What we know:
By secondary structure, this protein is of the alpha+beta class. About 25% of the residues lie in helices and about 15% in strands. The chain has a 6-stranded antiparallel sheet, with helices on one face. The longest helix is centred in the last third of the chain and has 19 residues, at about 285-300. The radius of gyration is 20 Å and the shape is elongated.
Amino acid sequence: xxxxxxxxxxxxxxxxxxxxEALSQLAAYRNKHGLPGVIEPLDTEMxxxxxxxxxxxxxxxxxxxxxxxxxxxxxxxxxxxxxxAAPGISDAIxxxxxxxxxxxxxxxxxxxxxxxxxxxxxxxxxxxxPNGRTIFERPSGDKDLFPGRPxxxxxxxxxxxxxxxxxTLPHQQLTELSxxxxxxxxxQWMDTSFxxxxxxxxxxxDHVTHAMHLKGVPLGNKARILTPFPGATEFAHQHVxxxxxxxxxxxxxxxxxxxxxxxxxxxxxxxxxxxxxxAPRNANEMALLKEAVILxxxxxRGEVF
Length: 305
């Protein structure tokens, strides 16, 4: 591989979170913020879906949790609400699904006829990540909002207001475009820095969009990329405005969105894994974009997921 990923991989090792630790974190967060609710014992469904549940007695109490956990709510990902009813469970039950894994399916998974532990009240469902992600703690010495996998991208908060983007296809950035030299440098980098990559026209964007396609190696069996049809291997592309569309794991999509570096693609609500990374305005922002492109490449190859 031509491109170096050593800097991307130098991350603090995070101890994986189990179900009991997730319960402890939930209790600590509730106590720290003076929030109401009774934590439910773990059951088979919670263990299967890596979730904990807390029951409150009124919508007012639930709204206290909604306000206190706003930075962790799924609404930032677009296309999925932060609360709603899961199929097969009574519509009277409202959910606050915190840190759900992207827009990749319905949380809950109950079979028809099964009743939530919160059937007579309101429930707060909090997902934990047994592969390393904690929910309510920051790693020491790290400005990341959420600790994660050892190889996930860690971005600073983006400065300034977000640029304007279109709501139709092709999805474009409309303001704060990259300077011509930045765009040229990124084009040269993507053309020359990756093994097993062919660059050329995009299969899913306009004819002037320059894309990266895997060539000579199989697509990772867990990768969902920009081209969701058999035989296609396009995982990233650069637009003429300097912005990019990338396919990334859910953890890293969250990082890009919550730190202000990108916007969800309009087709994401249909299950296409596409996120816009805003056009870099200077060399420092270009370096951050390169980290995201490297991770998209590794994701497409099946090295990360």
